[in-house]
Each structure stands twice: as structure tokens, then as C-alpha cells.
Design a protein that fits this description.
Blueprint: H1 2-17, E1 23-29, E2 36-42, E3 45-53, E4 58-59, E5 65-67, E6 72-78, E7 83-89, E8 95-98, E9 107-109, E10 116-123, E11 126-133, E12 138-146, E13 158-161, E14 166-173, E15 177-184, E16 193-196, E17 203-212, E18 217-225, E19 231-239, E20 246-251, E21 255-258, E22 264-266, E23 271-278, E24 283-289, E25 294-298, E26 304-309, H2 312-320, E27 328-329, E28 332-335, E29 342-347, E30 353-359, E31 364-370, E32 376-379, E33 386-394, E34 397-405
């Protein structure tokens, strides 16, 4: 136990020292090649920009998602000959296009388990809630919400409470009313609750919903309209999930529009981020500090959208090493230790095994999936000498061991 406390303390110090670094990933159209580039950068810092050409010619709006367990960025992508689920690993810059086509654009990852959930309206008035297996491209339907009069679901209006396993979704009913749905996805019996939101104007449209897993709060962008449905402004708001109150935190009077699918949330700093178009018709990144209710604006890569925040370090510190979910500890072995070129991991499990290796500054350096019974061997050739943490996840069991590479 003392060993894990030392590791956690060290990683926490690393995170505190790097608090101002908010790592972002997005997709941008390259006007010279006609292709899509993947861009990585730190918020407001043009010097940190890295551009990686992708195999994509296009993508579906609102289809981005980020798996902080593996450092994988996902899009429903389009190439010259095919379309499917595009994956980009932010650690290795490797990319791939699978044949998966059922990936929803209303989706979120549970950061504490690595599982992905989505909402889908396959027919009018019925919203299905699904657990999505990216590896196999299959859905497991958890339940269905019947909403009379509803003929669609709101774009970019979903957040995930990874502490308790609850999807929060903002949508309209036939009353008409705008409501906050709370859908616990870890329960054996499907259920949901619905809280009517208290409007701040004759008409409100809530988008860019993000969940703060440190303070258990919901933040969003609120567009307001008068009784004739004339646009009157945009606000950054907090949604009280108990009362339905929409709490105005800041008005964004300097911005006339906002880039779709540009919002994200940095769990380490409590920053709500989105891209706005100002009164001079220029794109600017907005970094809103939810602790002080103040914001900075500045650099954002040109033509970027589908922005996600890389919360890998947060997940490592708050879920993987602390095991705050219902996961049980798994018994596994590593050999040899100390290691040189190769490491063998011995796991007795009837389910798929995910093995990750982290450096002692919290950087994910290896992430590989293995089938049940498969020999697990990791190539360590490219890793510098030093101490590392090996983490194993299989089903609802996980565990960690420290190794030394010579």
C-alpha cells in the first residue's frame, strides 16, 4: 500500500506542476491537400501545435470521442473508398479505420472503466441507451427511453459522471420543456430520471454539455432567444442537477457564434473550453476557469473542430491507480523484473486483457489488448532505463505492479 501511495503522490506532484498545460486534440481540414489533419496542442499555445496528416477525407459532425484509458481519439471517418470508425492514438500517432459503422454522435466514455456509452434514436419517440464495444463494433442495449412527441436528440448535449456511472443528457420533450436526463448505466435494472430545467429566457438551447468529475458539476453553453425566437445571447452556465436551475456564470457578448463540437473539459484544472467566433469573425479558443468564473481567449488552430481534451493523467491518478469503481484487484505476474528487452505478463482470466505501461511521470508508453489465453509479451526495446508501472485490466478486475527496466 505504501508503494502505491508514493507513486500516487509523485504523479499528483507532476500534475500540479503541469496544471497550466491543457492537452487538446482535434480534426482540421487541410486546404492544400483536401484531406483531414489531426492536430494536437496545448490550450492557447501556438508553439505547441503538432499536425499529423490523416487518411481521412471527411468525418461525421459530432462523432468525436476520447478514451483516456488508451489515449485513443475517435471519429466516424470517410476515406476515398470507405467509411467507418477512425482511431488515432495520441501516444504513437498510429491511425486506423475499422468497418464499424454504428458509432453514435451522441456518445461519451466512462473514464473510470474505459467503456463507451451512446444514445440513439432509431425511431421517433424512442431513445436507446447502449454500451458500445469498440473492439468488436457491437452494441449492447441497456434500455430504452420512451419520450412521446420527441423526433430527435440534441446534438452535443451529453456528459458522463464517471464517479457514479451516470449519463447526463439535455433534451426536449413534447410539453415543450427542456429537461436533464440522468441515466445510471451500471445498475442491473434500467432506469432514468428527468428534471425539468428552469429557463433563463423565453427559449433556451443547451449544448456543449460537460461533466466535472472533481466537483460533480455540469457545465454547458446556453443560447437564449426572445418570445419571437430572436437570438439574444450566449452564456456559460452550470446546471443544478437536483433543482434544474440554470445558473449563469458568464456572458459571452464578444462572440457571435460558436464552432460545433468544439467544447471539452479539462478535469485537472477545472477548465471548460470551447471555440467561439468573435465580432471580427475570427476563431478564438475560450478557456473558462470554473473556479473563478473568469476566462481567457486566444490561439486555436485554423479550421479545427471535433475537439477533445486529453485527460489521461487525470484518469491515471483518479481511477486506474485508486480503483474507485467496483473493480476488484486482479492477481497477475510479471517476468523478468528487472527486465531488459521483453516483459512477460501472466494473467489468469477468461476475458480480454488490456495491459498498459506508464512511466513514472504518468505518461502512457505502451497500451495493448490481448485475447483470453493469449501469451502476453511486451517489447521494451524503445523504452529508456528506469522505473515503470504496469497496469492490467480484465473485465471488472484490475491491478498494478512496479517494474524496473535495465
Amino acid at each position: 500500500m505504501a508503494r502505491f501511495l508514493i507513486i500516487l503522490t509523485f504523479l499528483s506532484i507532476i500534475c500540479m506542476n503541469g496544471k497550466a498545460q491543457i492537452n487538446l486534440v482535434g480534426a482540421a481540414s487541410n486546404q492544400n491537400t483536401g484531406m483531414i489533419d489531426i492536430v494536437k496542442w496545448q490550450a492557447l499555445d501556438p508553439e505547441s501545435l503538432t499536425i499529423i496528416p490523416s487518411i481521412l477525407q471527411g468525418y461525421y459532425a459530432g462523432s468525436s470521442a476520447f478514451d483516456a484509458y488508451n489515449g485513443n481519439y475517435y471519429l466516424t471517418g470517410i476515406t476515398a473508398t470507405d467509411q467507418g470508425l477512425f482511431s488515432f492514438n495520441t501516444l504513437t500517432n498510429e491511425q486506423d479505420l475499422s468497418e464499424v459503422t454504428s458509432f453514435s454522435n451522441i456518445s461519451e466514455f466512462d473514464m473510470s472503466t474505459g467503456r463507451m456509452y451512446d444514445l440513439r434514436m432509431d425511431s421517433a419517440e424512442y431513445i436507446s441507451v447502449n454500451e458500445f464495444d469498440i473492439k468488436t463494433g457491437t452494441d449492447s442495449m441497456i434500455g430504452v427511453i420512451y419520450e412521446p412527441g420527441a423526433n430527435g436528440i440534441v446534438f452535443d448535449a451529453i456528459g458522463f459522471n464517471s464517479n457514479d456511472g451516470i449519463i447526463y443528457y439535455v433534451g426536449f420533450t413534447s410539453e415543450p420543456a427542456i429537461c436533464l436526463y440522468a441515466i445510471p448505466v451500471r445498475e442491473e435494472v434500467f432506469s432514468f430520471s428527468r428534471t425539468t430545467l428552469i429557463p433563463t429566457a423565453p427559449f433556451n438551447i443547451i449544448t456543449s454539455v460537460n461533466y466535472d468529475n472533481v466537483n460533480d458539476k455540469i457545465f454547458a453553453l446556453n443560447a437564449t432567444y426572445d418570445s419571437l425566437f430572436n437570438y439574444t445571447g450566449n452564456e456559460i452556465v452550470e446546471i443544478d442537477k437536483e433543482t434544474g436551475e440554470i445558473i449563469i456564470l458568464a456572458e459571452l457578448a464578444d462572440f457571435t457564434a460558436f464552432v460545433a463540437s468544439s467544447s471539452s473539459f479539462d478535469q485537472n484544472t477545472g477548465s471548460f473550453l470551447l471555440v467561439g467566433i468573435d465580432t471580427s469573425n475570427l476563431m478564438r479558443m475560450i478557456v473558462f476557469d470554473t473556479y473563478t468564473n473568469t476566462y481567457e481567449t486566444g490561439f486555436v488552430p485554423g479550421s479545427v473542430s471535433e475537439i477533445v481534451c486529453d485527460n489521461t493523467i487525470f484518469v491515471l491518478n483518479n481511477y486506474i491507480l485508486t480503483s474507485v469503481t467496483d473493480n476488484k484487484e486482479i492477481d497477475f505476474g510479471v517476468s523478468p523484473n528487472p527486465a531488459t528487452d521483453w516483459l512477460k505478463v501472466i494473467v489468469n482470466s477468461t476475458e480480454d486483457v488490456l495491459v498498459r505501461v506508464y512511466s513514472m511521470n504518468g505518461r502512457l508508453v505502451i497500451s495493448k489488448d490481448f485475447s483470453p489465453g493469449e501469451n502476453i509479451e511486451l517489447n521494451l526495446d524503445l523504452l529508456p532505463s528506469g522505473a515503470y508501472l504496469v497496469h492490467v485490466l480484465s473485465g471488472r478486475m484490475n491491478g498494478s505492479k512496479k517494474i524496473q527496466i535495465l
